[in-house]
Amino acid sequence: MFLEALKSVNSRTDEGAINVFVETPKGSRHKYDLDASGLFRIAIELPEGESFPFSFGYVPNTKAPDGDPVDIVLVTAGSVPSGALIEARLIGVLKMENDEDGKMARNDRIVAVANMSRIFSNIETLGDMRDGFAWDIELFFQNYNRMIERPFNIVGRGEREEAYEMLKAAEAAF
């Protein structure tokens, strides 16, 4: 169901926003993946007391260097359901790498803000977020990767322009 519908979704809207498909909602203790049948599967259960501090998903019809669609950390004031398609704007990128088949490979997470958000309506770049925001998200990913026993490194951060360049390359690769 979702897979067929997502094939017709553009990565960008007519207004210049991007479309983010949410797999894992903010506040969830479970990491969900959309499988080949179009159903959501629980991929991982986080430890007691841990939850996703953001919604996590991807931009449809893109291909990142790791071969998957572009990963998106979606900033919203509250939770949105798995399967939601949210219009958002890119504000930056968290540069990361993790183990892929015995080699460290880049697996960046682009950060976006939901356009519908009133609380984050003035945020245009990663630098506009509260002090410590990027560090909090990086710490979440460090803990997440440690939990699944996967080597992981923080490589750096980038602002909005770099995120849009990454998206542009992923659209072309698709």
Descriptive report:
Keywords: Hydrolase, Magnesium, Metal-binding. InterPro entries: Pyrophosphatase, Pyrophosphatase_sf. It is an enzyme of class 3 (hydrolase). Its EC number is 3.6.1.1. GO terms for molecular function: inorganic diphosphate phosphatase activity; magnesium ion binding. By secondary structure, the chain is α+β, with helices and mostly antiparallel strands. The protein has one domain: Inorganic Pyrophosphatase. It has three helices and nine strands, in the order αββββββββαβα. It has helices at 2-7, 133-147, 160-173, and strands at residues 18-24, 30-34, 40-45, 55-59, 70-75, 85-100, 103-106, 109-114, 152-159. The chain has a five-stranded mixed barrel with strand order 1-4-5-8-6. A two-stranded antiparallel sheet has the order 2-3. The longest helix has 15 residues, at 133-147. It is globular and about 40 Å long. The model has no long low-confidence stretch (mean pLDDT 94).
Shape: globular
The portion of residues assigned to helices is: 10-25%
Beta-strand portion reads 35-45%
Number of strands: 9
Tell me, what is the CATH class?
Alpha Beta
Please give the alpha-carbon distance between the first and last residues. 21 Å
Oligomer: single chain
Cα gyration radius (Å):
15 Å
Number of helices: 3
What class do helices, strands and sheet pairing give?
A: alpha+beta
